[in-house]
Write a structure and sequence with these properties.
Layout lengths: L8 E4 L6 H30 L7 H18 L2 H10 L3 E3 H34 L4 H4 L2 H27 L8 E2 L6 H7 L5 H32 L5 H29 L9 H22 L2 H15 L1 H22 L1
Parallel strand pairs: 1-3
Antiparallel strand pairs: 1-2
Helix pairs in contact: 1-2, 1-3, 1-10, 1-11, 2-4, 2-10, 4-6, 4-8, 4-9, 6-8, 8-9, 9-10, 11-12
């Protein structure tokens, strides 16, 4: 590998050369990253400390929150540091590692979202068989399949990338190391490699999006036979998933399902699936979910105010006993 390159680092051109814009982006992305970490950690702790963990939907949600943290952490801390320091260099080894982890955790996240859509399909279309179909063994297998899918998606692209010769220039017109920008600075013909990347990343994004779209069309068609309350609850849950799908897959398909070329706008679109969509996941899955909000209040009130929570429980218990005695 060493004989194929004579550079030891790359220069990331970043989002902008304007100092004021860089300061604004630093503050914005620092806020987004902190919000992402806090929001997903709150979801993780709330579910793990409650009976919701035994429900398939929330079991998958814990894995999605974990992937959000890992996936965004492979890109955002480096971006924030570069905006603060002004220097945007990255070593060859770190660049290759970033390209791998970004696609690995991103691939797992895609397949976790697909597993969540399958869970909602079974819950709405086959409610009587839901607990039999979505037992814990099958849920574990789906998560394992998501990890395997992420590996199958990322390893071939990474192995092709580390074999590319880089002899200059070493400037990458992006804010992180991605496959297409790396192909642009490789000193060899990368047409075949680019086609294989499109066939891999582009088709994974497109096929997964089509599967999700079809599943939600079937779900919405099935909802016609449900009661008004059932439709409202199902639409609330599915609406959250559809919002995540649009935020994540729209920009991904635009970037990866096309000839292997790069545009300046790619950096803006990449912000959606690397930072914005993972940041909004906690809000999307909690603000529109009554059960999740109730669980979060219960878990965090008991954690932060144990005495107050205990006294509230005692008062409620006494009031319940008083009502029972009066009604006898």
């Amino acid at each position: 590998m060493e004989s194929q390159r004579n550079i030891s680092e790359f220069i990331l051109l970043g989002l902008s050369y304007n100092q004021n814009i860089q300061i604004f982006c630093f503050a914005l992305f620092l806020f987004c990253y902190v919000a992402l970490l806090v929001g997903n950690l709150v979801i993780l702790v709330s579910i793990l400390c409650s009976p919701l963990f035994h429900q398939p939907m929330y079991y998958f949600l814990t894995h999605l929150s974990s992937m959000d943290i890992f996936y965004t952490s492979s890109v955002t801390p480096k971006l924030i540091g570069d905006l603060l320091r002004g220097t945007k260099t990255i070593s060859y080894s770190s660049c290759m590692l970033q390209a791998f982890t970004m696609h690995f955790f991103g691939g797992i996240e895609i397949f976790i979202i697909t597993a969540m859509a399958f869970d909602r399909y079974v819950a709405i279309c086959k409610p009587l068989h839901y607990m039999i179909i979505m037992n814990r063994t099958r849920c574990n297998l789906l998560v394992l399949a998501a990890w395997a899918g992420g590996a199958v998606h990322s390893f071939p692209q990474w192995s092709m990338t580390i074999r590319l010769p880089f002899c200059g220039p070493n400037k990458i017109d992006h804010y992180f190391c991605d496959i297409f920008p790396l192909l642009k600075v490789a000193c060899t013909d990368t047409y075949i490699t680019g086609v294989l990347v499109v066939a891999n990343s582009g088709m994974v994004a497109l096929v997964t999006f089509v599967v999700l779209f079809v599943s939600y069309v079937i779900i919405l068609f099935t909802l016609r036979n449900h009661s008004a309350e059932g439709r409202r609850k199902a639409l609330s849950t599915c609406g959250s998933h559809i919002t995540v799908v649009i935020l994540f897959f729209g920009p991904s398909i635009f970037i990866y399902l096309r000839p292997p070329i790069t545009f300046p706008e790619d950096k803006v679109f990449a912000l959606f699936y690397t930072i914005i969509a993972p940041m909004f996941n906690p809000l999307i899955y909690t603000l529109r979910n009554t059960e999740m909000k109730r669980t979060m209040r219960k878990v965090w009130c008991q954690t932060l105010f144990p005495k107050k929570a205990h006294s509230s429980f005692t008062e409620a218990y006494r009031l319940n006993n008083f009502i029972k005695k009066r009604t006898r």
